[in-house]
Task: structure prediction
Amino acid sequence: MWPDFARELEAASGISVGYRDEGTIVVALTRDDAEQLRFTFDFQKSLGLDLEWVSGAEARRREPHLRPGVSGAVFSPRDHQVDNRRLVGALAKAARKAGAVLYEHDAVREVEISGGRVTAVLTERRRADADVIVLAAGAWSREIAGIPATHLPPVRPIKGQMLALEMDPANPLLHHVVWLPRGYLVPRRDGRLVVGGTVEERGFDDRITAGGLLTLIEGAWRAVPGIEELPVAETWVGFRPGSRDDAPMLGPSGIDGLVIATGHHRNGILLTPLTAEAVSAFVLTGRLPEAVRPFTPERFSNNGRHFGTTIGYGIAAEVR
Result:
């Protein structure tokens, strides 16, 4: 869905979302890495995915700055990427042009529920009546007041530390997204090289740590030694919304008029057009597309108690 979605959004907003379709290279640095990668490759090929096993020499031909001695790689020609920050700006502009009203920097405090159905949203500055409310607050989806605890989606924040390095846009170090045994490298057209990302069960701890940066830099340097010459442009922390089974939650909440769209973990941008289409269809028709039905929040219901209030080992105290 992404190529058409990107074209439609760019036409509606006049903003490039940085869509690129050069494909992805998954690199094995050691013999053990290669054995694990071969196992994954064989499994994915059995599912009919379009993948190509390439030698270390071929991987270095495609990406000359990979370190010598790469054991092997998998090339995925149909993988693609988009600049998430530009995407959000384009969505905001396109929504406004279509007649939507966006209230920024005005946190939602509460959802009003009366007679078993939603009636309004309360923010820091206003009250807005509503027939339908889509709860799409990511890792913060359990922090909205007014919704019974039994109907809050079982989502938790999964911390990710990341950094960006500065490449020469005219002569970038990498041209493909490169997945490593530990982490990944994403080249942007403006010369930024995004290095990600840690996966930490730390609640909403937004601190950058020495260990987190060491993990990112060391993992990237082992595959592309040339990064040591690149200036650090930025470091940041994000919070992925993780569900109990790390799959999205899309559809009815059990409260009339309250629709849930969260729990995408690391795949929120990837699943943007699918989520938009599925949730819109449900709001307008009351029906979910067949492919989405296994991912309704109702899969977490427990003997009529709906979602329940615990998330998992080591997480319950951190849930918001």
User: Anything to note?
Assistant: The mean pLDDT is 93. The helical segments are 2-13, 31-46, 56-62, 84-97, 210-223, 272-285. The chain has three domains: 2-76, 103-155+244-318, 157-242. The radius of gyration is 21 Å.
